[in-house]
Write a structure and sequence with these properties.
The chain is an all-alpha fold. It has a single domain, classed as Glycerol uptake facilitator protein. Helices cover 67% and strands 0% of the residues. The protein has helices at residues 2-26, 37-59, 65-73, 82-103, 105-110, 114-119, 130-151, 167-181, 191-203, 219-238. The longest helix has 25 residues, at 2-26. Residues 159-164 have low confidence and may be disordered.
């Protein structure tokens, strides 16, 4: 039970800080408006770092349903724990998004563009092309899960090495994925980062919010699932 609680808290903090930087840099009347993509990608990396430091000692800090599934497929995590982890992550993602809305309520009210508001909750593609969007999400998530698996190999965890740095390699990995591969879809690479905040957008009384982009909502779920499964498969082939 403790592991589930910390997966919830860690994911909530991840989304609070991650969606928080999207709100900070895009909403009207925000002091951070226009700060740009580098700030967004760095803050998402730091958001993951905070979530990992919170949850890591108690749950391993997956903070992502497809990470839990990918690790289980690779034989590195107990399948019996996967449902509880996924539920905790999804609930944490929803609560984190609600906190962002409460925090930036005045800025949401001052922002007329519904697409800008939606973009602070969940991802939408730069160019809507479902097949390629799925491919992009799968590639990004493959790198995420495969690199996480590789970070844990004994060759990367000597007395002094990458593994001893804890959250730092994953933080840099998230930044690298965002800076290099984030331009096509906004690099969800995590269903808990996209679907629960999208639901929050749909149910919250946001002024002039428009639609919640449900025609795209399956892509940040299916793409990451494919990428995680592929990463686990390659890892098993290699090891």
């Amino acid at each position: 039970m403790l592991a589930y609680i910390f997966e919830f808290i860690g994911t909530m903090v991840l989304i609070l800080l991650g969606d928080g930087v999207c709100a900070c840099t895009s909403l009207e009347k925000s002091k951070g408006k226009g700060a740009g993509w580098v700030v967004v990608t760095m803050a998402w990396g730091f958001a993951v770092m905070c979530g990992v430091f919170i949850a890591g000692p108690y749950s391993g800090a997956h903070l992502n349903p497809v990470v839990s599934i990918g690790l289980a497929l690779a034989g590195s995590f107990d399948w019996a724990l996967v449902p509880g982890y996924v539920i905790a992550q999804l609930l944490g993602g929803f609560c984190g998004a609600v906190l962002v809305w409460l925090f930036y309520k005045d800025q949401y009210d001052a922002t007329p563009d519904p697409d800008t508001k939606l973009g602070t909750f969940c991802t939408m593609p730069a160019v809507y092309n479902p097949a390629r969007n799925v491919f992009c999400e799968a590639v990004g998530t493959f790198l995420l899960v495969f690199c996480i698996l590789m970070f844990g190999t004994k060759e990367n965890t000597p007395a002094v090495g990458m593994g001893d740095l804890g959250a730092i390699p994953v933080t840099l990995l998230i930044m690298a994925i965002g800076m290099s591969l984030g331009g096509a879809t906004g690099y969800a690479i995590n269903p808990a980062r996209d679907l629960p905040p999208r639901i929050a957008h749909a149910v919250l009384p946001i002024k002039d919010k428009g639609g919640s982009g449900w025609q795209y909502s399956w892509v940040p779920v299916v793409g990451p699932a494919i990428g995680a499964a592929a990463a686990a498969g390659v890892y098993l082939l290699l090891f």
